Amino acid sequence: MTIHHIVLTKFKPEATPEQRQSVRDSIHSLPSKIPAIQSIVAGETVSNPLGHGYDKGTIFVFESVAKLNEYLPHKAHVDHKAFATPYIEDVLIFDIESA
């Protein structure tokens, strides 16, 4: 079963464009550091009134729950979270299993 790990990010209002870009760059570097990630799709919101203020969405694709569970404690993921947290107001995570 394929796992889609969906992460919605809401930046703090005071996060500068440079800080936001550095978080984006960090996200895009993760597949080269974490073999469990099959692929990612990431982008900015397209002005949606139902978006609840989230700025960025990322979908990580894993081949199994086991691969997702390899990713979660991986040092590169932990380091990314520590780096990004000062700039983030809120995160919403939703995992979907599909055939």
TrEMBL record:
SMART domains from the UniProt entry: Dabb
InterPro entries according to UniProt: Dabb (IPR013097), Dimeric_a/b-barrel (IPR011008), HS1/DABB1-like (IPR044662)
A Pfam short name: Dabb
Domain Stress-response A/B barrel span(s) in chain numbering: 3-96
Subunit structure: Homodimer.
Protein name, as recorded: Dabb-domain-containing protein
Species of the source: Rhizopogon vinicolor AM-OR11-026
Source species taxonomy: Eukaryota, Fungi, Dikarya, Basidiomycota, Agaricomycotina
